[in-house]
Amino acid sequence: MPVEFLASVLFDGPQVIPYWEQIKQYGPTLIPIATTVALGKYYFRGATNTWERDLHGKVYMITGGTSGIGAVIAHELAMKGAQLIILTRRTDDSWVAEYIDDLRDQTSNPLIYAEQCDLNSLYSVRKFATKWLDNATPRRLDGVICCAAEAIPRNIPRQITVDGVEKQMGINYLGHFHLLTLLEPSLKSQPPDRDVRVLIATCSSQSLGEIDLQDLLWEQKQYPTSQPWKVYGSSKLLLGVFAKQYQKRLMEYERKDKAPCNIRINLVNPGLVRTPSTRRFISMGTIWGLLLYLITFPVWWLFLKSVYQGAQTFYFGLYAPVLMKMEGGCLLQECKIMTKIRKEIDDKELQEKVYHNTTELIKKLEVQSAIERKKNKTEEEIQQEKEAELKRKRDVNIQPKTTEELNQKLNTLRSQIGIGGGSSVSNNENGMPLFPEESDLENLKNNSSSKNRTDGKKSSKKKSKGKK
């Protein structure tokens, strides 16, 4: 028992302590080292969030929610009862299905879903956003957490997205820009008493980045294979400029109910964290690099945060009530609001130019992508699209966009309730209108009477012929 052991040490002396001689011999050397390591780890672990908030029933959208900090945040929000929409590259992947099932079981929260939204493709982002917005009643959305990022290791050749953009720029900046701007109607339609928070992950490497308005996406400049962090830092710097401008646009929007803007966009710098992306960058994407990383792991363990510790500032951004009293566009680090940021982020003229140029680039890339998709379509895909379009036009639950679609839906309704029009999707002018007037009913009655008399005469003639 501990009490008996302490009593023995007190009355019999420290020699009753196991390995006392070794402790006396090596203690003066090991104890200062252990103390230094413990204090160093305590310092590098960073700040811890102390705010709490009830998230039951709230809806959050997360990019990068299957690994690293995003996975930890998803687990935390699910434990608090929030509904999660985790955006992934694919939804037909068995690993994703198992991950969602495991997360539901671990958190006892069935309201966790995966939706396909590949930031590597602007078309995929638009498809998801269109599906999300295509709802008669605006869907609830309490926040968007942008954790997805791509960090290309050193000495790896330039990689591109589906749209031909440098991959770090395409995923880190362009994909999130496209997603958030497309979701703007959904964000604006939330009730005024709902605080909507958008958190965008940034990095200290933004201090190494630069903004070239003539070449925003690093298309013309030579890709720095030996210094890929320059492109990565530029993508994060552009995100900061975009966040400021986007927040400004949302604040200027005048709601119909005259309520103040209830949307806040903030940047979050989690610090140096041992994420899969960091591990890949340190190991340079090679087996030998990974082996070296494992050998030197105690060093990384000491100086880098765990993913749980890296997520603390995200929790601060989601829970702290003070952030809703500010105008947004803040840089959060170590669970506090930073006052010193790069001058480019506060440059209003630069913000407008970057926003405008990026919007134009996206339009251009989407047009090019659409042309390429049309060229590469197979006959089967074309036929499937035609069938889907015909089905959409006939679906009476979808609002028609043209007069032709309206006529098709009206004829479908006529067919369903049995007042003419048949099963044809063409406009039947001789059929009964969907909402007939008295004159239409009278004409129908007269036509029916005439038809009955004609049928009666024909049947009488047939009978007389039979008698003869």
Reconstruct the topology from this structure.
Layout: H1 2-12, H2 20-44, E1 59-63, H3 68-79, E2 83-88, H4 94-107, E3 112-116, H5 122-133, E4 143-146, H6 167-182, H7 184-188, E5 196-201, H8 229-252, E6 263-269, H9 276-282, H10 287-295, H11 297-303, H12 307-310, H13 312-319, E7 331-333, E8 336-338, H14 348-375, H15 379-394, H16 403-417, H17 438-467
Parallel strand pairs: 1-2, 1-4, 2-3, 4-5, 5-6, 6-7
Antiparallel strand pairs: 7-8
Helix pairs in contact: 5-6, 6-8, 8-14
| Shape assignment | elongated
* CATH architecture call of the largest domain: 3-Layer(aba) Sandwich
Quickly name the level 1 CATH class of the largest domain: Alpha Beta
Structural class: alpha/beta
Give the end-to-end Cα distance, rounded to a whole number of Å. 124 Å
Q: What strand order characterises the main sheet?
A: 3-2-1-4-5-6-7-8
Overall mean confidence score, pLDDT: 86
Number of domain modules? 3
CATH third-tier fold name of the largest domain: Rossmann fold
Radius of gyration: 32 Å
Helix proportion: 40-55%
Please identify which CATH superfamily of the largest domain we are dealing with. NAD(P)-binding Rossmann-like Domain
Strand elements, count: 8
pLDDT < 50 runs, ≥5 residues: 421-430
Strand content: 5-15%
The major pleated sheet works out as: 8 strands, mixed
Individual helix count? 17
